[in-house]
């Protein structure tokens, strides 16, 4: 199973769950990507 397969499975099972969180100053969230977002890109 490749990392792509894992991400696609997660996109299907947990589409709206946050996969990555970007921190503006090391503490405050400035943006995020869901598993669905990753699969679409």
Q: Quote the average pLDDT.
A: 92
Structural class: alpha+beta
> How much helicity do the residues have?
40-55%
Spatial strand sequence of the major β-sheet: 1-2
As a whole number of angstroms, the C-alpha radius of gyration is 11 Å
- What is the overall number of helices? 2
User: What would you call the shape?
Assistant: elongated
Secondary-structure element pattern, one letter each: HEEH
Beta-strand content estimate? 25-35%
Instruction: Please tally the β strands and state the result.
Output: 2
3D architecture notes:
It is a single chain. This protein has 41 residues and is α+β, with helices and mostly antiparallel strands. Helices cover 41% and strands 29% of the residues. It contains two helices and two strands, in the order αββα. It has helices at 3-13, 35-40; strands at 18-23, 29-34. A two-stranded antiparallel ribbon has the order 1-2. A hairpin with a 5-residue loop joins strand 1 (18-23) and strand 2. The protein starts with a helix and ends with a helix.
Offer a concise description of the structure:
The chain is α+β, with helices and mostly antiparallel strands and 41 residues long. It has helices at 3-13, 35-40; strands spanning 18-23, 29-34. Strands 1-2 form a two-stranded antiparallel sheet.
Highlighted features:
two-stranded antiparallel ribbon; 2 helices; alpha+beta; 2 strands; 41 residues
Chain-wise SSE layout:
Blueprint: H1 3-13, E1 18-23, E2 29-34, H2 35-40
Antiparallel strand pairs: 1-2
């Amino acid at each position: 199973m490749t990392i792509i397969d894992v991400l696609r499975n997660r996109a299907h099972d947990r589409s709206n769950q946050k996969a990555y969180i970007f921190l503006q100053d090391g503490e405050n969230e400035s943006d995020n990507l869901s598993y669905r977002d990753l699969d679409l890109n």
